[in-house]
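[job 0412] stage=complex_fold ligand=nicotinamide-adenine-dinucleotide status=START
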Amino acid sequence: MNQGRKLVTVLGATGSIGVSTLDVVARHPDLFGVFALTAHRQVDKLLEQCLAHRPAYAVLDRTEDAAALQSRLDAAGCCTEVLAGAAALADVASAPEVDMVMAAIVGAAGLVPALAAARAGKRILLANKEALVMSGALFMQELAAAGASLLPIDSEHNAIFQALPAGFERGLHGSGVNRILLTASGGPFRCKPLEELAAVTPEMACAHPNWVMGRKISVDSATMMNKGLEVIEAYWLFGLPAASIEVVIHPQSVIHSMVSYADGSVLAQLGNPDMRTPIAHAMAYPQRVDAGVRPLDLFEIARLDFERPDLLRFPCLALAYRALEEGGVAPAVLNAANEVAVASFLEGGLRFDRIAGVIAGTLDAFVPRRADSLEVVFEADRQAREIAGGLVRGLVR
Ligand code: NAD
Ligand code: MG
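[job 0412] stage=complex_fold status=DONE, emitting C-alpha cells
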C-alpha cells in the first residue's frame, strides 16, 4: 500500500454505497484519492462523479455509453479515460496503483471484479455480500493465497469485526467467542398482517423504516432474505458454525450486531444507521476518521427492543439456513433464485408473498453439488436462474 494518500477504486460508484463512499472520500482529500469509478448504465451520475473526483478511469457496461461519457468528459476538460465491459471492471480493481477496492456492485455481477481485487492482493472493502454467498470457500481461499485483506462494509459484519478480538482472522479457536448475534430491523412489514403481504407493491417494500438503500437490498430486507444472505456472509467471514450465528430482530437499528463470549460478556457496536460509519471505519482502518455521521443520542432513542424472528412471516430466512446447511452450490442457487424473483417483483410481475416459494422451488429442483471451482458456481447460477425464471413465469399471469 502507498504510505501517504490511499487510492481507491469504487465498483458500483453510482449506487447507495458508492455515493456514501465518495462522501467519505471527499471529507478526507489528504487521506484518500480515487483511481477508478464504475457504474452499470447511469451515465449522467457517473459524469458528475468523474468531474468531482477526477479518477484516472471510469467504467460503464456498454461501449456506446462509454463513448458518450468520454466525449462529455473531454468537452469538460476532464482527463478521465472511459472503458467498457466486464474485463475493464476486473482491470480497474486489480491495477498496481490501487490500494483499496470498494466492492459495491449489487448481485452476482460483482463477483468477478471482487475476485480480481482479491487475486491482486488489495484491501477489499466488501459491501457486495452476494459474492461471498455464491462462492465463499473459493473467495476466502483466493484472498488468503494472495495475502489480500477483507474489511466488511455490511453494517452487521463491520460491527462484529469491531467487537471480535484482534487477530481473529487467524481463527476463533480459543478466543472465548461462542456466538454472533446478528441484528435485523425486521424491515417495513414486521407488524403487517400476513394476509396483506400479497398486495405489497415495490414502493412499499423499498420504503425501509431505518436505512436508505438500493432497491434490490431493500426488497431483501423486507423479506429478510438480506439477513439470510448475511448469515451466510458471517459464516465465511468469521468461520463460526451456522448454529452459532443467531438472528435477533432489533427494530431501532442502533445496535448493528453483537459478539457473545464464554465469560458472559456481550460486546455490541452502536451508532445511528448510516453506512458512512462502516465505510469510514474500513477505509481508515486501523485509524478512526470523521464520517459525517450524526452522533448517537441515547436519550433521544430512549429504548432498545429485541424480538425473535417469526419464520412464518420470513420464510426466506429459513431458506438461507437451509442452503448453508446443504452447502456446495446451494447458497449460489439461493442467491440466483432470489435475484430472479426480486427482479420480477420490482418490475411489477411476481407477488411479494411468492418470492420465497420461487426460491424454495429452485432449491428443491437442484441436485446438491460441491462448489469446487468458479465454473461450477457460475453453471449453478445459470441453471438456477433458468429454473427460477420458469417458476416465475408460471406464477405471473
Ligand atoms: P444500488 O442498486 O444502489 O447500486 C448498485 C451499483 O452497482 C450501481 O452503481 C450500479 O450501477 C452497479 N451495477 C448494478 N448492476 C451492475 C452490473 N450488472 N454490472 C456492473 N455494475 C452494476 O445498490 P446498493 O444499495 O449500493 O448495494 C450495493 C451492494 O452493497 C449490494 O450487494 C448490497 O447488498 C450491499 N449493501 C448495501 C447496503 C446499503 O445500505 N445500501 C448495506 C449493506 C450492504
Ligand atoms: Mg446489513
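The chain has a mean pLDDT of 96.
[job 0412] exit 0
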